[in-house]
Design a protein that fits this description.
11 helices
């Protein structure tokens, strides 16, 4: 899956790589190779984001110019979640979702999901007795509802891999905006930036990708119906996602280690579980493509 990460790619290849989702760039279903994708562009964006964040921070320290802080804040908060999002864009072997729509969901969906979550916090008052752990229920529900609402008219994007990409886009936007808030008001901006950046690939982006991928697995080419949310194929995955987020915000740490190190290791274990769920759904998405190919379905008319 990561065989192309360190491969050489020309600027022309990179430009072509992001051309997708239009009438002329969406391949017919029969021409798609239903095999594991080999993403590589995400790693370049990840490396560039880290270098830019370090560069802005060094320049700020060297010249003591506060005008450099917004650049550091922007790159540091958005770079890594966006890089993980690009991974899901590349993993969509159907190539039927344009980068424009991905950016739209990242920005609009990120804001919309935060607003929905804040309303849910206010209405349910769960945080009064569950504390930070209530985010596992509230925020995962808010992000899921945002995806359902913003993609409700996208009739042809019914594939599991499409759902995972939509979920990753909104999850990444949510993560980026949330991190910006934490960094700005934490009082320990550098430590908060580094920790949340390091943990970003293991949290919101993959959680929402898994939840929406599971829902799209149930929905397929049917319009969304509320009864789909009670389907066990969706509930099993959504329950895991909520549990992972719930435990992520809990005070639990690895026994005998404790402290920040014990907590970080515990979060990485949760992140590994989250990625196993994601890869399982990618596998299901590939099998779905292969199945539709055998049925002779045309990607452009399948919906």
């Amino acid at each position: 899956m990561f065989s192309q990460v360190f491969g050489k790619h020309t600027p022309e290849e990179i430009e072509e790589h992001f051309k997708a989702g239009t009438r002329t760039t969406t391949p017919v279903l029969s021409s798609i190779q239903a095999v594991w994708p080999a993403p590589w562009a995400f790693f370049r964006i990840l490396a560039a984001s880290v270098i830019l964040a370090i560069g802005f921070y060094w320049a700020f320290q060297r010249f003591e110019n506060p005008k450099l802080l917004p650049g550091w804040l922007f790159v540091g908060c958005f770079g890594i979640p966006f890089s993980v999002l690009v991974f899901f864009f590349e993993a969509n072997i159907l190539r039927n979702v344009s980068f424009y729509r991905v950016i739209y969901l990242f920005a609009m969906g990120g804001l919309f999901s935060i607003i929905l979550s804040l309303f849910l916090f206010e209405i349910t008052n769960l945080s009064s007795w569950l504390g930070a752990m209530s985010a596992g229920i509230i925020e995962e529900s808010g992000k899921l509802l945002a995806v359902i609402f913003l993609t409700r008219h996208w009739k042809k994007d019914f594939w599991i891999l499409n759902g995972m990409l939509f979920g990753a886009a909104i999850g990444a936007g949510f993560a980026a905006f949330e991190t910006a808030g934490y960094v700005m008001f934490s009082g320990q901006a550098e430590e908060t930036m580094v920790l949340r950046g390091f943990l970003a690939p293991f949290a919101h982006t993959i959680w929402t990708a898994a939840a929406v991928g599971a829902l799209w697995r149930v929905k397929e080419n049917e319009p969304f119906q509320r009864k789909m949310l009670t389907d066990l194929r969706f509930l099993r995955i959504f329950g895991i996602v909520v549990a992972l987020h719930f435990l992520w915000n809990s005070p639990i740490a690895i026994p005998l280690i404790g402290g920040m190190a014990g907590k970080t290791i515990f979060l990485l274990v949760l992140g590994l579980i989250g990625w196993l769920v994601v890869l399982m759904l990618v596998q299901a998405g590939i099998k779905q493509v292969a199945r539709k190919q055998k049925e002779g379905v045309d990607q452009s008319t399948a919906a």
